[in-house]
Design goal:
The complex is a heterodimer of chains A (268) and B (272).
Chain A lengths: L7 H21 L1 H22 L6 H34 L2 H4 L6 H32 L9 H24 L4 H14 L11 H7 L5 H11 L3 H7 L2 H30 L6
Helix pairs in contact in A: 1-5, 2-5, 3-5, 3-6, 3-7, 3-9, 5-6, 5-11, 6-9, 6-11, 9-10, 9-11
Chain B lengths: L1 H19 L1 H18 L6 H5 L9 H34 L2 H4 L6 H31 L11 H25 L3 H15 L10 H7 L5 H11 L14 H29 L6
Helix pairs in contact in B: 1-6, 2-4, 2-6, 4-6, 4-7, 4-8, 4-10, 6-7, 7-10, 7-11, 8-10, 10-11
Classes of the chains: A mainly alpha (268), B mainly alpha (272).
């Protein structure tokens, strides 16, 4: 199979176009983004009341809120990523995108960046509302930005894996639901993973965003990046993020190539 | 006669769809059991958790109540989520217009095509959840035919909610995040019907507006508290149970009809 060499400037332009398309689509359904923000906020409030036995335990929420925000980014990437690609397959427009000489990974990069911005926007609003509304004692610390950025990349990598699976598996709904529920249950949103039994704690660290949330919590507690590096959380987070991102991009490229070969880019 | 044939065909189609999604259901199966086992020891433990102390043992009474709480939610999940995805797929593929060729009202085609499949899927997943949780702790439920009444009311309410979501889908299309969020709230607020945690007054008050709360309350009265299913008032009382379920069904039919008219006027039934 012959490939066309495309200059890097064109590849960059294509990724930028996908990003702009994603942001325009988000703006078109802004009312749904606002509704989702409210619903997610209420869900977290409900779960916190649930765990707190009918009242909010602020000391606990300080440690679970970062996980909630990570869940928002991850589930936005997974749900909107899968929905977007299945919409294009069912609508027959995914085939058109492959008329471009650019690599599939470049398109995926643009799409996931747009979803990252959407997820982050929702997470920032929910975070501010809880910190100010409930009066959570969270002091923003510049050191937290590094694990936060890695957590976002980790979440987007997970979303990309789910998106890539849609290209191969027609009905992905259940898999992304189970994935999102797993992040919710084991990612530190219900309780910090450090209180899990040892075996469960190890299992939880393989779940996307868990290591990132642990690392963020360490830095927000004022221990600095050195502490999260020396306890092994930050290095493992870097490894986890790299593996998930590489797996996501590779799987997406493989599945797009397979679909092109088997005629799976249009409705099945 | 034609109506019966059309209904039977839709139910048959729904069951064939469900069979084609058997792998999905197998994947979803452990999700509910894991949640019951994980959430059980955490309920109301906020203060202990903040200090890093948790007793991870499962209490039989609490776990029984949680299984009772999750089982009707599984039906809600199967009915609402899968009806949404099916409808969205038909909208995107452009086959939804064909539904309007049926002699049945479109809302009935949409609901009937899903409900039998959702019922069978729920039986399977709920039985698996019961089995998995029973390995860890014994579950004590009082099996009685009286439980069929709240079970029926729960099904009616779930059909109503699924039609509300379906009606919104006809207009707004990709509403899956809202859909997931609404289901999560339905689950959380229905917990006020069970003696699992002490909920604030405002929570208990608004929880009655959610479609699952009184259904779960009625099931609890009959299958755990050995109460009467005909008790008129209170959480799970016959009056709120039937009122809320009927209201959701009517609201669902109404929303679906409105959504369908909007989509027809915009010409978006057969074009995405």
């Amino acid at each position: 199979m012959s490939t066309i060499a495309v200059p890097i400037a064109f590849q960059t332009r294509l990724a930028q176009t996908e990003l702009e398309k994603g942001l325009r689509l988000m703006w078109r359904r802004r009312s749904l983004v606002v509704a989702a923000t409210i619903v997610y906020g209420l869900t977290y409030l409900g779960i916190s009341l649930f765990i707190g036995g009918g009242h909010l335990v602020k000391e606990l929420m300080v440690r679970t809120l970062p996980a909630m925000l990570a869940v928002l980014v991850a589930s936005t990437a997974a749900v909107e990523g899968t929905a977007g690609i299945s919409e294009e397959i069912n609508g027959g427009t995914l085939e058109q995108t492959r008329l471009s000489p650019a690599r599939a990974e470049v398109q995926a990069l643009g799409r996931m960046t747009a979803l990252g911005i959407e997820g982050l926007a929702v997470a920032v609003v929910v975070g501010i509302v809880f910190v100010l509304g409930v009066g959570l004692d969270i002091t923003p610390h510049p050191a937290a930005l590094i694990p936060a950025a890695l957590t976002i990349l980790d979440a987007l990598g997970y979303g990309l894996i789910m998106t890539a699976l849609v290209v191969r598996v027609a009905s992905i709904g259940a898999i992304s639901h189970v994935g999102n529920m797993a992040i919710m249950a084991f990612g530190g949103m219900l309780v910090p993973v450090s209180v899990f039994p040892h075996g469960l704690e190890i299992f939880a660290r393989f779940i996307p965003t868990t290591l990132g949330v642990e690392s963020i919590n360490t830095t927000l507690a004022g221990h600095g990046l050195g502490a999260t590096w020396s306890d092994g959380t930050l290095p493992w987070l870097m490894v986890h993020t790299a593996v998930v991102l590489i797996a996501g991009f590779t799987l997406y490229a493989i599945n797009i190539r397979h679909a092109q070969r088997e005629g799976g880019l249009s409705p099945r | 006669m034609n109506t019966a044939i059309a209904l039977r065909n839709e139910i048959g189609k729904g069951l064939r769809f469900a069979w084609s999604e058997r792998l999905q259901i197998l994947i979803e199966m452990p999700m509910f059991a894991v949640f019951v086992i994980l959430l059980g020891p955490l309920l109301g433990q906020g203060e202990n958790l903040a200090s890093g102390q948790v007793d991870w043992s499962l209490n039989s009474q609490t776990t029984t109540a949680m299984v009772l709480w999750f089982t009707p939610f599984i039906f809600f999940y199967m009915q609402v989520v899968k009806l949404f995805w099916r409808l969205l797929g038909e909208i995107q593929a452009g086959t939804l217009e064909q539904v309007f060729l049926s002699p049945l009202p479109p809302w009935l085609v949409a609901a009937a095509g899903r409900v039998a499949a959702a019922f069978l899927e729920t039986l399977f997943v709920a039985a698996a959840t019961y089995g998995m949780v029973s390995v860890f702790v014994s579950i004590h439920l009082h099996w009685t035919p009286a439980a069929l009444l709240p079970a029926f009311a729960i099904m009616i309410a779930a059909i109503g909610l699924s039609l509300i979501i379906a009606g919104a889908t006809l207009v707004y299309k990709r509403i899956q995040i809202v859909n997931d969020g609404v289901l999560m709230m339905v689950m959380i607020f229905s917990a006020s019907a069970l003696p699992l945690i002490h909920v604030p007054g405002w929570w208990a008050a608004i929880s009655h507006a959610f479609p699952l709360t009184d259904g779960v309350g009625s099931l609890y009265n009959v299958m755990i508290a050995h109460g009467s299913v005909t008790q008129a008032w209170g959480v799970g009382g016959l009056v709120p149970l039937l009122t809320v379920s009927t209201a959701y069904l009517l609201a669902g039919i109404g929303t679906f009809i409105v959504g369908e008219r909007v989509a027809k006027n915009r010409g978006t039934l057969g074009r995405y």
